[in-house]
Amino acid sequence: MTDTFQALLVDENREAKIQTLGIADLPDEAVLIDVEYSTLNFKDGLAVSGASPICQKLPMVCGIDLAGTVAESKDSRFNVGDKVLANGYGLSERHWGGYSQKQRVNPDFLLTIPAEFSSQQAMAIGTAGYTAMLCVNAIRDHGVLPSDGPILVTGSVGGVGSVAIMLLSALGYEVVAATGRPEQEDYLKTLGASSIVTRDELARKSKPLERELWAGVVDTVGSTTLATALSQVKYNGIAAVCGLAGGLDLPGNMMPFILRNVRLQGCDSVMAPMAARVRAWADLAVYLDLSLLATATIVEPLSRVPTLAQEIIQGKVKGRVVIDVNR
């Protein structure tokens, strides 16, 4: 086993640099993983760029996702050679994450990669795709059927939005994609969107109640976009929310919830119970078209992460970005 390896470390000055580390530098956790791939998510962009103090402990190896092969294990649930993944659980916040060629991880954070996926495909899904599945399952569990009307997906060009469109379309729902990048209309329709609405149609001050349009919403944006979408949700509809790209505020009112029986359902991917994670990954194995996912995915080397971090928080990244930590 090689004693040294490369990792992207945010130091005490919150500067992200690729550094050479040794096995002894890793956290004292029960499972050692030879990491193959990680991902780039909006949260990764915030952490690596320093735009938000995501990293609660420093120094910190960033990367909220990882996939690879078990190299050593002190836990009976995982054996050497097992293919495993981790999403969330405070990786990149309180625990060292996936931007490293080796990592020691708490076994309670790990899932065996479904047989349908390679390590690279698991990270093409990553936190974004797994979160999209949590949102879609929230809509399904609420009882919304394809015949009930269209589902609005905001932030649709991003990772969560892209995978949500694929999943909803595969399940037979009509999907309307909201985006601030109308030049991506062809891309969104390729994923399964039937039509698009522009960001400006939603990112505005809305009336307390507007015309009923959506049987459900998958929202990654928040703020005025979510407030407007809520005012347009049909009776007994649901908004499954998972992102704050547009801001932390929600400048709406109570009328959709009371007069239209609308549910606002938060979908947390970081600390979601293991049962919800297992279900989501099992559902992804059934409903996600891997060939379509491939068209929405690019693979980049670890060295590109600092540049990509800036691009994703500026809204310049499309679809999914897999990080090959060994390039």
What can you see in these coordinates?
With 327 residues, the protein is an alpha/beta fold. The chain folds into two domains: 4-113 and 296-324, Quinone Oxidoreductase, Chain A, domain 1, CATH 3.90.180; 127-266, Rossmann fold (3-Layer(aba) Sandwich), CATH 3.40.50. The chain is built from nine helices and 16 strands. The strands form three sheets. Strands 3, 5, 6, 7, 8, 15 and 16 form a seven-stranded mixed β-sheet that branches. The model has no long low-confidence stretch (mean pLDDT 96).
| Average pLDDT level | 96
In whole angstroms, the N-to-C terminal distance is: 18 Å
In angstroms, what is the radius of gyration?
20 Å
Give the total of domains.
2
CATH topology of the largest domain: Rossmann fold
The CATH homologous superfamily of the largest domain is named NAD(P)-binding Rossmann-like Domain
Q: What structural class should be given to the helix and strand makeup?
A: alpha/beta
Looking at the overall shape, the CATH architecture of the largest domain is 3-Layer(aba) Sandwich
| Separate helix tally | 9
Briefly, what CATH class of the largest domain? Answer: Alpha Beta
